[in-house]
Write a structure and sequence with these properties.
Length: 448
């Protein structure tokens, strides 16, 4: 029997979480063998930039999350374009689709999420795509290039993925309709007022938006090709392309039926450790601590994946590190409008307090509970949102000065002196300017 290669640190997943872990390991262990396995054939790239790849044909080299020589400089072995098909926890081994078997001492599951595909007739037709990976954007680009006539597109789902691909398509002069089953777009990350603002912007850009309805089937009158969709109210829409953007679910299939504890995602503790010794998880696949809710939740965003990955890496390398917690946070810019949201944006009951301000295209909203910020939405003017986010993250009681937080002239100096002095002491500087939490998150998000 051939001897199985044993790797000290094995990482399944080559995105933000996996890279964060590898970097953290290398700060402590300069020589221990690290291997990263990914079923994608590319070096690590910034997934939020796949919309720009589609809209302006942004090349891979300008989407990289780390420099091309990152793996070589950090002595990381990569196994790209290969899928893990089996994990054996008692034996500490993984099996790849090509039959190769690897052993490990410490394992990180950073497998991310996979697109949700509804049980819908016609989903297998030509012209039907998802939009979560670079290959998705490339396939859509190729489809558009092959269809010289004007392509009409239906996007199923009005969340972040759906709105991002809609913007990319509009930039490519593609007639686009969004179908959202809920009563408003971006309903998970925005409140009603901000959603209404976004829908208005979408329609102004030429995107048709249909809410409160679902697509029942994808229709075809040409052999093997999508030619339209049928909605639940009987309405039919002709189209040549359908993009399914309902959302993603954690890729937990590798641990299904094992002793690894799984709820909606793989459950981890504050050290990003799973219920199995020497096995860690982070990113979209993991249910990790959410500091707003005070419990484990899925928070599938890049900054949380990277932060969780770093904590996992430190613990894998032997340093006891604790994940401070993340929460849902999104910083987006679609159709020229900046929006930042975090935490609870739509309070579920009257235990919460809302303060807000609105001026033309500028909207600011903060959600409080017992004097603590638990949610925020900023649209149009997001310059000071980083200060608010840090007050929320650091659990600062703002009850005595809450009204100033949504004022037009709000800034660090608006806070009580003992708080703004702490903020100034904490904030690093680059070129003499404070770096906000949102700017740091955006840097992680796009890798630039």
């Amino acid at each position: 029997m051939a001897k199985i290669e044993k790797i000290k640190y094995l990482i399944i997943g080559n995105s933000a979480g996996g890279i964060g872990a590898a970097e953290a390991i290398r700060t402590l262990d300069k020589t221990g063998a690290i291997s990263i396995i990914s079923d994608e054939p590319y070096p690590v790239y910034s997934r939020p930039l796949i919309a720009e790849h589609l809209s302006e044909r942004r090349p891979l080299k300008k989407m990289l999350f780390r420099p091309p020589d990152f793996y070589e400089k950090n002595h990381i072995q990569t196994i790209l374009g290969k899928k893990v098909v089996k994990l054996d926890f008692p034996k500490h081994t993984v099996e790849l689709e090509n039959g190769q078997t690897l052993g490990w001492e410490k394992l990180l599951l950073a497998t991310g999420g996979s697109p949700i595909l509804p049980p819908m007739a016609g989903i297998e037709l030509q012209g039907v795509f998802t939009f979560t990976r670079l290959d998705d954007a490339r396939a859509i680009d190729q489809f558009l290039a092959e269809h010289r006539r004007k392509v009409r597109t239906v996007v199923i789902g009005g969340g972040l993925i759906g709105v991002s691909v809609a913007e990319a398509l509009v930039k490519r002069d593609v007639e686009t309709t969004i179908i959202e089953m809920k009563d408003r777009v971006l309903n998970v990350i925005l409140d009603e007022e901000a959603s209404a603002l976004k829908e208005k912007i979408l329609k102004k850009a030429g995107v048709e938006v249909i809410t409160g309805h679902t697509v029942e089937k994808i229709t075809s009158y040409l052999p093997g090709e999508a030619t339209g969709v049928s909605l639940d109210d009987g309405q039919t829409l002709p189209c040549e392309m359908v993009i399914i953007a309902i959302g993603v679910r954690p890729r937990t299939e590798l641990v299904t039926g094992t002793e690894i504890k799984v709820n909606r995602g793989i459950v981890v503790d504050r050290h990003m450790a799973t219920s199995r010794p020497d096995v860690y998880a982070c990113g979209d696949v993991a249910e990790a601590y959410d500091f707003v809710y005070g419990e484990n939740r899925l928070t599938p965003i890049w900054p949380n994946a990277y932060s969780g990955g770093r904590v996992a890496g430190l613990n894998m390398a032997g340093i006891l590190a604790e994940y401070p917690g993340g929460t849902a946070m999104n910083s987006i810019k679609y159709f020229g409008t900046n929006i930042v949201s975090a935490g609870i944006v739509a309070p579920p009951d009257d235990r919460y307090e809302v303060i807000s301000s609105r001026d033309d295209s500028i909207y600011r909203k903060i959600v409080l509970k017992d004097g603590l910020i638990v949610g925020m939405v900023f649209s149009g003017d997001i310059e000071k949102s980083g200060i608010i986010y840090n007050l929320m993250k650091d659990r600062i009681n703002v009850g005595t000065f809450k009204q100033v937080l949504v004022a037009d002239d709000f800034g660090l100096s608006s806070l009580p002196e003992e708080i703004w002095r702490q903020r100034l002491a904490w904030l690093p500087s680059t070129a003499g300017s404070p770096v906000t939490a949102v700017e740091q998150a955006e840097e992680i998000l796009v890798g630039e």
